[in-house]
Amino acid sequence: MAIRVDNTFKKDMEKYGAGDWNHCFHCGICTAECPLTEERFIFPRRPIRQYQLGLKEKLETNLDPWLCYYCGDCSAKCLQDANPAEMMMALRRWLTSVYDWTGLSRKFYTTKSWELGFILVFALSIIGLFAIFLPPAADLFTESEKFVNEQGGVMINSLAEGVSGEQFLRIIHIGDWIMAVIIGFLLITNIFSMFVKTVLRDNSVRIPLHSYFTEFWQLVYNFITQKNMSRCEKKGYWIFHLLLMTGYTIMFVVVVALLPWFQTEEVYKWYYLQRILGYYATFGILLFLVYAAIGRIRKTDIKFKFSHPSDWLYIVMLGLTTLSGIILHSFRLLGMPGATYIMFILHMAILVPMLVIEVPFSKWSHLAYRPFAVYFYRLKRAAYQKSAKTIPAFAG
């Protein structure tokens, strides 16, 4: 069987963050150091070797980069400064663009003007849509009592002019669902593309139908717990990442699926479940952002030493979303309708483009690709074991 070699692949990978790390001679230290390594599993050497040889088609079918949780131990111990951890991160960015049928992910990763341009267009569109419903500016400040409830908090749904608070909330909720459907469609179709490339096109194994059901719990379990990351030597990174993932997931579900329960005219006491979930999500996301930002500024930890522009854009966008949400909540509690409504629009102008761009096309998509990679790998391993063949054991 002929294998196609792409001599330009290394040059192309530089746009995804692959530096001049071509010194690997496969001594095996990274494999010995990786806590996810088991007998006969040469992780992470196989994808690095495929990268060096320009075997793009082989890499497209390889799940190994997603099984790496980027603890950085392999790079710290590498004698040749080949930086296998950062190389795996660059391969994940590239694979994200490979799975994306729209081609936008490649544009966003390789040309920052594309991503920044999309963010600006979405932000201005959101501001323009809200401006249609915005009451006269004078009313927001001179007739503030119309927008404050009995508890002294701003009635957030009374923003719209000419419609009731209930109608305005319904409009926002419909918009939420439209956005969720678009994001879900893009992400699901990209995951299906991943499935086709990594499972269906693997002619070396035939997966029984029942395995798709018996192994499905691995997908759910790894998404919720990020268990494999907990095997890394530095447990703190797993904890911060778990807080980020659970905080983001809770906020996404609450804002999209449970908005009428979450965004109410009445400001509930701090101990109500509605506010506890919001505070937990904010705390988890903010704590991880501080940890990641300080790490990338100081560059003392190997996994933060090198940063692709997408790493910083992700931190900035998520940070602005979180901070604008905190300020919005504070203005609302203080009974300041003018400031609340202005911050509400700014918050949505940051949140919407972040979700639409980051979730299906960029950094946030990794939260989906990783557990699905574990699931697909389990499917293949179960099939190999059933057929009495051997497959490298994966620590999952």
Question: What features would you describe in this structure?
Answer:
The longest helix is centred in the middle third of the chain and has 36 residues, at 165-200. Helix 8 crosses helix 9 and helix 9 (112-133) runs antiparallel to helix 18. By secondary structure, the protein is an all-alpha fold. The chain has helices at 9-13, 29-33, 45-53, 56-60, 64-67, 73-77, 84-99, 104-110, 112-133, 137-142, 165-200, 211-214, 216-225, 235-256, 259-262, 273-298, 309-333, 337-361, 366-386. The chain starts with 8 loop residues before the first helix and ends in a 10-residue tail after the last helix. It is elongated and about 70 Å long. 65% of the residues lie in helices and 0% in strands. The chain folds into two domains: 9-99, no CATH class; 104-374, no CATH class.
Structural class by helix and strand composition:
mainly alpha
Q: How would you describe the shape?
A: elongated
> How much of the sequence is in beta strands?
under 5%
| Distance between the first and last residues' Cα | 32 Å
Task: Work out the number of β strands.
Answer: 0
Order of helices and strands: HHHHHHHHHHHHHHHHHHH
Number of domains: 2
Provide the gyration radius in Å.
Answer: 23 Å
Helix content: 55-70%
- Largest sheet: number of strands, sense, barrel closure: none
Q: Taking all residues together, what is the mean pLDDT?
A: 84
Tally of helical runs:
19
Unreliable runs: none
Protein topology:
Elements: H1 9-13, H2 29-33, H3 45-53, H4 56-60, H5 64-67, H6 73-77, H7 84-99, H8 104-110, H9 112-133, H10 137-142, H11 165-200, H12 211-214, H13 216-225, H14 235-256, H15 259-262, H16 273-298, H17 309-333, H18 337-361, H19 366-386
